[in-house]
Amino acid sequence: MQALRSTNSFARGPLAVLLSVIWQASAVVGATSPALSPTNIFAPESTPAKSIAHLSVFVLIITGIIFVVVFTLLVYSLIKFRGRAVDAGREPAQVFGSTQIELAWTIIPILIVVVLFLATARVIHAIQDAPQPPSAIEVTAIGHQYWWEFRYPKLGIVTANEMHIPVSDPENPTPTFLTLLSADTDHSFWIPELAGKTDLIPNHPNRMWMDPHRIGIFLGQCAQYCGVQHAKMLLRVSVDSPEDFAAWVRSQQQPAVQDASVETGRRVFESTACINCHAVAGTNANGRFGPDLTHLMSRATIASGAAPNTPEKLRLWIQDPNKIKPGSLMPAMQLSGTDLDAVVSYMETLR
Ligand code: HEC
Ligand SMILES: [Cu+2]
């Protein structure tokens, strides 16, 4: 686990002081403005996101210094050597073949590039080659046009759009390691406060990990254009306390609630094409094209964050998904009013 802890210590030495001052300042901005943006890249809450944010600040400082030096020299020269009436028609002194100047403007930029390269390579190595500890939670995230499937192979859980993971105490880390797959086209998994952006590519599994240090809801977004509803392919990660996570796991492992009072709705659901696309554990619905609905009501949103999970929105969604998410790959099922109400009531029992 050493690697998980040591990644943000790449900047030791004289620059560290400057870096930490600027870092504290940006952290204050980040911490005081989460209301401005829940996807603030300056408010990292997990080791990989912190390493990347530190590196960005380091690069910004170096390039900022270059900017200030070049701009100052430029302004100085413009003023000092500006055209004056007395100089009219005279050529300024010409300097040819100065070895010193040639060396200076070759070697200094090379050194700067080498420093930036090494700092970046170090962060990439620390993030990509971090060993997976036995305590890690494993999640397989599968991108679909336009929603996310989350599978927990060791825990036997399948869910959609809202991922639950435990908070990770730096002293006793429980990071989450994700395997990223795609069912159709290229998507990209990005929760700025938790980790860098990684693509989900068909037939090319990618890996990423995160060890959130704070409990809360973290938001993200598919970051790779994947079709018309790409912008409504939101990500929601609930970072839970160990107890809450264990309780969530236990409830997700249960088969679907069988409530006799919604028998009609269940029959409508099971006798229409719904079950070709949706699974409900413990029933004959085992479609895989759309989200698993076994614990639909445990989610705060529907359709990958496109709408809150309220009875009205759920009804509108099943009546015509295009009203909420035009271009969604779920068809309007043309149910009659009574069938629609019955199906919605059934859905509302799937806790
Ligand atoms: C052709 C396949 C298909 C059929 C048939 C279908 N759906 Fe869907 N359904 C989907 C897809 C795909 C999504 C995800 C859409 C998105 O978020 O972009 C979805 C999403 C949903 C959601 C939201 C789930 C979530 O967690 O966000 C519900 C609820 C739902 N469908 C219910 C139904 C019901 C009820 C029926 C039958 C009346 C039905 N679906 C028929 C493919 C289908
Ligand atoms: Cu996408």
Key attributes of the depicted protein:
alpha+beta, Immunoglobulin-like, 5-stranded mixed β-sheet, 9 helices, 38% helix, binds heme C, binds copper (II) ion
Structure description:
Residues 1-11 have low confidence and may be disordered. The chain has three domains: 2-84 and 91-128, Helix Hairpins (Orthogonal Bundle); 137-253, Immunoglobulin-like (Sandwich), CATH 2.60.40; 260-347, Sandwich (Immunoglobulin-like), CATH 2.60.40.420. It has nine helices and twelve strands. Helices cover 38% and strands 17% of the residues. The chain is elongated. The strands form three sheets. The protein has a five-stranded mixed β-sheet. Strands 4-10-9-6-7 form a five-stranded mixed β-sheet. Strands 11-12 form a two-stranded antiparallel sheet. The chain is an alpha+beta fold and 351 residues long. It has helices spanning 2-6, 14-32, 47-80, 99-128, 242-253, 263-271, 274-277, 311-319, 337-347; strands at 137-144, 147-152, 157-160, 162-166, 176-182, 187-190, 198-200, 206-210, 216-222, 234-240, 301-302, 307-308. A hairpin with a 7-residue loop joins β6 and β7. The structure holds heme C and copper (II) ion (CU). Copper (II) ion binds at residues 143, 187, 222, 224, 226, 230, 233. Copper (II) ion binds next to loops.
